[in-house]
Structures are given as structure tokens and as C-alpha cells.
Amino acid sequence: MDLKNPEYAYMYGFLQADGHLARGAGQKGKLSAEINARDIHILYEFQRLTPYYSSVTERVRTTNFAEQHHSATWTLCALEARTIINELGIPYGKKSRIIRPPRFEFSRPDYLRGVIDADGSLGWTSDGLPFLSLTSASTAVAAYLCHYAKKITGAERIARRNARDQVYVITYFKEQAQQLAAHLYYPDCLALEHKKANAAAIQAWVRPADMKFAPPRRRWTAKDDRELLRLNDPAAAAIALDRTEQSCFMRLWRLRTGQTPTPVQ
After folding, report:
1. pTM summary value
2. Using alpha carbons only, what angle is made at residue 142 by residues 130 and 121, rounded to the nearest 5 degrees?
3. Which whole-number Å values give the CA distances from 41 to 69, 94, 131, 140, in the listed order?
């Protein structure tokens, strides 16, 4: 399972986010992934990519969200295959908080596309704006998306757990979503068909002429804060730091009132 290969990198990212590696008695165990039956095609692709016996089955059951949920499950039991997957970085048992990107060379856009297909969303907001998002409990995965997406879009995101679920929700909107979707969902890539279609559809969005464009935010650094405090004058700091006077005024007020920690000298 060479993760420099785009198909295996995608498969690994998907299984890392939405698969489950379970131990059984002795050397028994299984790797499985259960998804909505509409996406069963991707499980057949996993079966094609795996040189060990595996099965794809379907079932209909009642869940908290639907009286009849039609799902499909891919199951792989071979010990050698499970050992390979485990050594690559998919742990046995509960893993949502501890998974991380591979620590060796891998196909980055394909890995991230697999993670987003499993644990992300892609499409339109209720206001008709394109978006791409990832929901993950893993600090390492959330931080990696922020790092990688900044290279592609220039947009800076800081991974923070939300208060309600203690998970990370990283979201990109408008042109940033378009750029990231076009990069990750390139022609003929392995992906869930409905997300690939959404990635193509959002490329048609055009910013209305009356919609203001907000450039990427420049975050304040400790060096900026020290210079601002030294000058103690928003007008002078605006020139020295190449920022607006209003921005310098508000930052200085936050520093003076303790709402922003004073930088270490």
C-alpha cells in the first residue's frame, strides 16, 4: 500500500477517518468501513485495490436519523493486510482523536480528499455560497488541513475545538472553497461521486459585483504587539506596521485592558 500512489493515499485517508480496525480472539480481527449505500462504488474501488479477499455487503436498519437507513459495508479480515494498515498508522479500536497524517512521503491532496470525503462536507450554504469543510476530533489532521490549505488558498485558519462537541470544524467559503475543491478534486480522481460533482458545481459560482472582498487577515505577532506598545500611538503604529489606524487602536486597547496577553519581552 504505497501512499505515494494517489489511489492508495485516498483510500488510506478515507479509512483513517471513517474505517474501523477491530481485534478478535487470537489473530482474528477485521478492517471495515460502513457508509451510505449511495456511495457503494467507493467500497468496490477499495475491494479492487486490495490484493486480499474482502467483501461488500448491504443492509437496511433503523437509526436515530432514519427509520430505514440503507448502508453498505466493506470488510477485510486478512491478518497480513490488517498488519500493513496498522503499521501505516491506523490503530486498533477508537482512533478519532489520535489519527494523524503519515510521517513519511505520501500523496498529500489525495490523502486529504479521502479524509474530507469521509468526514467533510462540500457544496452550498443556505445563502447559496460555496463551502468546503472538515469536522475532525484529531488535532493533527485539523492542523494539517489548515497548513496545507494555506499554501493553496492563502487563507489562514487556526484549529480550535468547538465548545459543544469538542471537535474541530475547519471551513472555507467562496473563492477559497473553489480553489481548494479544484485542487483536491482534480479530473478523474478517486472520490465519492456526489462530492466530486459538488466540487465541480461550485466552480460556477461568481462573486456578485456588490459583494465586498475581504483579503486574508494578517494576524498580530508578538513582535507587532511589542512595537505597538513601544510607539503607544495608533497613527504612528499604522505607518510602522502597515496596518490601518483603527486596527492599531483596537489592538492597543485590548493590550492595555488585558483582553490580549502582553507579549513577553
Report:
1. 0.80
2. 30
3. 17, 26, 25, 29
